[in-house]
Amino acid sequence: MVEILHKPLSQILVHRYMKYSSPESLARTVVVQSGAGQSLSLSWADGVAFKTISPSFVISELLAKEFVEGRLRVSVLYADMNAFKPVIHAAEEKIQVAILDESGNKEAKALVDWLKKQTG
Q1: H/E/C letters for each residue in the chain?
Q2: Rounded mean pLDDT, 6-32
Q3: Is the pTM above the cut of 0.70?
Q4: Using CA atoms in the order 110, 14, 25, 59, what is the torsion angle rounded to 10 degrees?
Q5: 26-63 b/e with 16+ CB inside 10 Å = b?
Q6: Is 109 in contact with 11 (CB distance < 8 Å)?
Q7: CA distance 85 to 76
Q8: HSE toward the beta carbon, residue 59, CA cutoff 13 A
Q9: Is the pLDDT of residue 11 over 60?
Q10: What is the radius of gyration, based on Cα positions, of the chain?
């Protein structure tokens, strides 16, 4: 029989965070900063739309070890968005970005709670 183990994250290390004035502004930034083949979706939990970005440098042995130990390093772009909606439309740039409902994800909820405390 195969043993299944679950080891959730124990820490999320946020190196940078940037709050945008609106979900549409956040969506524009995500589209502009995305490269070919990158995901153009945002996440949402507890009134906040957000995008986590992993370090852009090559994953080192240290980062791999940290992840195995339950630590994740990210930067976060976010904006207040009271109610969940599946898509953000920014008409002037003809942008449409999908939003994933992460309200059932405890790590996403913890990150959003932390972000809300940073902006008072």
Answers
A1: CCCCCCCCCCEEEEEEEEECCCHHHHHHHHHHHCCCCCCCEEEEECCEEEEEECCCCCCCHHHHHHHHCCEEEEEEEEEECCCCCCEEEEHHHCEEEEEEECCCCHHHHHHHHHHHHHCC
A2: 89
A3: yes
A4: -120
A5: bbbebeeeeeeeeeeebbbbeebbbbbeeeeeeeeeeb
A6: no
A7: 20
A8: 10
A9: yes
A10: 16
Count of positions (residues) in the chain: 120
At position 50, the amino acid (one-letter code) is F
pLDDT digits (tens, 9 = 90+) for 59-109: 677 777 777 788 888 899 999 999 999 999 877 667 789 999 999 999 999
Residue 40's pLDDT is: 82
Residue bearing tokens 């979706």: 41
Is residue 105 within 8 A of residue 45, CB to CB? The reply is: yes
Query: Which residue bears the tokens 């195969």?
Result: 2
Mean pLDDT score of the chain, rounded to an integer? 86
